[in-house]
Design a protein that fits this description.
Distance between the termini: 100 Å
Number of domains: 2
CATH class of the largest domain: Mainly Beta
Oligomer: single chain
Structural class: alpha/beta
Helix content: 10-25%
Length: 351
């Protein structure tokens, strides 16, 4: 597939600066550019590479002013980062795919599979499963009985969808992810721990993307819900009865404990921990390695939190600045204590 600068500008609403017939057939990072490649410049820290790159075309923001001559053809757009994302989506959509059900896949006779689906060798599709049109089911995917998968969804190798769970349309679920494993529910007894049956489901809404080796557990009762537009990174744990609001983004190694509710448009950084049975309001941003045990700041939404227990990020910055001074402060405190003790001894000697 070959695209010219003029075609790229037309697709992105941009303006060509240079050779409108310059052509590309691949993408490359600006620092690794090569002839026939498209690169982009969004971060000013990478500007130096613009003057060295061998890429044929570079997307830049319309307000960018180069400080040196540029040999590549520029396409000026409103937002270079967003535009390259659109172009990558277009490029990906044009890749050929071969629909069909492999003779090496197991498909139960009661399963319903929509048109234009691809089912790879060694996939397992159980009784009464329903799969919408245009889905890609890769090798070693397991979809257990009564599960539902919507249209145009991609399940990469070794994804497991447990019984009765639901995955929406236009979703992407990466390798090794498990949807609907039992929630971590045990009742302590004098003899040990009795398992609490988890008879609910996990429900993934439309336009959700889930990274590799992530787990969304089924609920004890009702449903664990990951709502429309949510993006989960690799190695994320969503516990039983949790609700993740629309368009929330959660980074790798984060965990949300049972029955917590996370609002819409939230952002949780890597290794964030959310306690069970709490509510995080809409548009809350939580910095990496922070812990949310509860509190009004998290509940009301719109806050940027860091630390454990998480506090306003500005307060956290002051706390960290004070912490750096703590060793010196301790030495000063010990010196003051010694000085006060000496003064007391002198006072006690007075007639």
């Amino acid at each position: 597939m070959v695209f010219t600068a003029e075609q790229i500008a037309s697709f992105t609403g941009g303006v060509v600066e240079g050779d409108k017939n310059a052509a590309i057939s691949t993408f490359a990072k600006i620092e690794e550019g090569k002839a026939g490649a498209l690169s982009f410049l969004a971060n000013p820290q990478y500007e130096k590479y613009l003057y060295e790159t061998e890429s044929s075309i570079v997307l830049v923001n319309k307000d960018f002013n180069p400080s040196q001559p540029v040999k590549a053809t520029l396409v000026r757009v409103d937002n270079a980062y967003e535009s390259v994302a659109q172009l990558l989506q277009l490029y990906e959509s044009m890749n050929e795919r071969t629909p069909g059900i492999s003779s090496l896949a197991y498909v139960d006779k009661t399963a319903k599979i929509g048109e234009d689906c691809y089912v790879a060798p060694f996939a397992y599709i159980g009784p009464n499963v329903t799969i919408g049109t245009g889905c890609d089911i890769h090798p070693h995917v397991v979809i257990q009985q009564d599960a539902v998968v919507g249209e145009d969804t991609i399940l990469y190798p070794h994804v497991t969808i447990y019984k009765k769970c639901k995955v929406g349309s236009h979703c992407i679920i990466h390798a090794g992810t498990v949807i609907g494993a039992d929630g971590f529910g045990f009742a302590p007894t004098p003899q040990g721990y009795d398992k609490i049956p988890q008879i609910g489901i996990a429900e993934i809404s439309d336009h959700v993307e889930i990274g590799a080796n992530t787990c969304v557990d089924r609920s004890t009762l009702g449903a664990t819900r990951v709502k429309k537009g949510v993006k989960l990174d690799n190695l994320v744990q969503i516990a039983h009865n949790v609700e993740i609001g629309e368009n929330t983004v959660i980074s790798s190694q984060a965990g949300v404990a049972g029955s917590a509710k996370v609002g819409k448009w939230c952002m949780l950084g890597g290794q964030v921990g959310v306690s069970g049975h709490i509510v995080i309001g809409d548009k809350t941003h939580v910095g990496a390695q922070s812990g949310i045990p509860g509190g009004n700041l998290a509940r009301k939404g719109g806050a940027t939190l860091m630390g454990y227990p998480a506090v306003d990020h500005k307060l956290f910055a002051r706390q960290m600045a004070a912490l750096k001074s703590l060793p010196d402060m301790m030495m000063q405190l010990e010196a003051m204590k010694k000085e006060i003790q000496e003064l007391r001894q002198q006072v006690n000697k007075l007639p």
